[in-house]
Design brief:
The protein is α/β, with parallel strands linked by helices and 354 residues long. The chain has 15 helices and eleven strands.
């Protein structure tokens, strides 16, 4: 086992002292980086890139090399699990992910099976092992998956949607079918993340992108319930260290107490709540990750530094903060602005850890 040289992320997620606030950003490996676009062109397609462990490793390391991030996050997609279920994932320019075989009937729901992580998703596990080898202990590697609810929305709609009409129709009219699908997905995600941990992921994150479009009662029943089940199933120690679990529900600020009680180690925050409020509500229970508006990165480096200072001040002194955006970095962002963000966090945050 290679000794971890920079363990700020893991320590912060476990609310242990650090010398500076760790920083990484969601979608830190992506289209805004010219070096990523070169590899993407070489791969042929987005999914071909995801399915090539060596190339996936290369793009995972690009932002670590370029910006000095405090963590690497596996380059993959949240929809690999339903793709492995045979739904036929593909991407169209300007429209995002699509499925050739949406799940709209009872027969289709009942036919869903749980993919073997080392078979149908073996390319992901090989990427994790390759990335860990190439990182050589520089920073931790984060693995991830979409939440069962978020995966279900894409599976039923066949892709992105504005009103989630088909998904909500199934949820309201046939809750038994929706629960069956979510149960299968919870088992699949649990196996998938457990395999990532066994392959070398040192922290894992569950992305609940569409939980925020539910009512409070529906969120608890159809989204949080299944994430909580996954958290309870995951191995929480590997290679002699605890493996932190982060839950991120976009638009979930009203449910922070419920999320913090799920058994997770960290709660991801979007930009719709100030960190001081979130810390007052749940910061004594879990770590907080976030939460700069990604659009601040369209501003000047000077303005970015000001926003970083504001967010650090809102969290205040002490352990338990991982600096991140409130959602993924946008494709058109200038890489130099991401560099300004990382530099500002590394320069300004040590004052909060003395």
């Amino acid at each position: 086992m290679t000794e971890l040289k920079n363990d700020r992320l893991l320590r912060a997620l476990l609310r242990q002292p650090v010398d500076a606030t760790p920083v990484w950003v969601m979608r830190q490996a992506g289209r805004y980086l010219p070096e990523y676009r070169v590899i993407r062109e070489r791969a042929g397609s987005f999914m071909d890139l995801c399915r090539n462990p060596e190339l996936a490793c290369e793009v995972t390391l690009q932002p670590v090399d370029r910006f000095g991030m405090d963590a690497a996050i596996l380059f993959s997609d949240i929809l690999t699990v339903p793709d492995a279920m045979g739904l036929g994932l593909y991407f169209t320019e300007g429209e995002g992910p699509r499925f050739q075989h949406p799940i709209r009937t009872e027969a289709a729901v009942r036919a869903l099976g749980i993919p073997d992580p080392e078979q149908e998703l073996g390319y992901v596990m090989q990427a994790v092992r390759t990335i860990r080898r190439e990182l050589d202990g520089r920073v931790p590697l984060i693995g991830f998956s979409g939440s069962p609810w978020t995966l279900a929305t894409y599976m039923v709609e066949g892709g992105s949607a504005k009103f989630f009409a088909n998904t909500k129709a199934m949820m309201f009219e046939r809750p038994d079918l929706m629960h069956h699908m979510l149960d299968i997905l919870a088992q699949a995600v649990s196996a998938y993340l457990s395999a990532q941990i066994a392959s070398g992921a040192q922290a894992v994150m569950i992305f609940d992108t569409w939980g925020g479009m539910l009512t409070t009662s529906d969120y608890r029943e159809f989204s949080l319930r299944y994430m909580q089940r996954i958290v309870a199933c995951l191995p929480r120690e590997h290679e002699g260290r605890r493996v932190p679990v982060v839950l991120f529900t976009k638009g979930g600020a009203q449910w922070l107490e419920d999320i913090a009680a799920s058994g997770c180690d960290g709660v991801g925050l979007d930009w719709t709540i100030d960190l001081d409020q979130a810390r007052a509500r749940i910061g004594s229970q879990v770590a907080l990750q976030g939460n700069m508006d990604p659009c601040v990165l369209y501003a000047s480096p000077r303005r970015i530094r000001t926003e970083v200072a504001t967010i650090l001040a809102r969290y205040g002194s002490g352990e338990g903060h991982v600096f991140n955006l409130g959602h993924g970095v946008h494709p058109g962002i200038d890489p130099e602005n991401v560099a300004a963000l990382v530099e500002a966090v590394h320069e300004l945050s040590p004052a909060y850890h003395r």
